[in-house]
Amino acid sequence: MLMVVSHDIRSPLIAISATLKLLIREVYGKIDESPKQTLKNLYARINRLNGIAEDYLGKASVVTGEVQTERKALDLREDIIDPILDELSPEIERHGIIIDNRLGSIPANQISTRADRI
């Protein structure tokens, strides 16, 4: 149950943080300095709130015994690299950056981690 609540709290915070970062970087267009500073302040507050949530949920999982220690297989390209490139694609295109992603397939059984911590 705690892991579901954890996901429900962290997901929107991470999405808001990522969107604010893109706005601050002016991926969607030029922003005057005053609104940009407001966005930077919001970004800092969201990240602080995310840190508080992480700390609380970490402590709560220990108290309730819901500490997840199970490691799961991870596909580096599918689970990490491709989503990051997708998220950054507007900025990559705007700057005319070309990324030659030569990472081949790494078998999922070669990388394992606690997926809730990535």
Q: Mind explaining what this structure looks like?
A:
The mean pLDDT is 78. This protein has helices spanning 2-24, 33-64, 76-94, and strands spanning 72-73, 112-113. The radius of gyration is 18 Å and the shape is flat. The chain contains three helices and two strands, in the order H-H-E-H-E. Helix 1 (2-24) runs antiparallel to helix 2 (33-64). By secondary structure, it is mainly α. 2% of the residues are buried. The two termini are 19 Å apart. A two-stranded antiparallel ribbon has the order 1-2.
State the gist of this model.
The chain has 118 residues and is mainly alpha-helical.
Q: What is the percent of helical residues?
A: 55-70%
Major β-sheet profile: 2 strands, antiparallel
Instruction: Please report the total strand number as a whole number.
Output: 2
Give the integer mean of the pLDDT values: 78
What gross morphology would you assign? flat
Number of DSSP helices?
A: 3
Q: Could you give the distance between the termini?
A: 19 Å
Strand content: under 5%
Structural class by secondary-structure content: mainly alpha
Low-pLDDT stretches: none
Please give the radius of gyration in angstroms. 18 Å
What is the N-to-C succession of helices and strands? HHEHE
Sequence of strands across the biggest β-sheet: 1-2
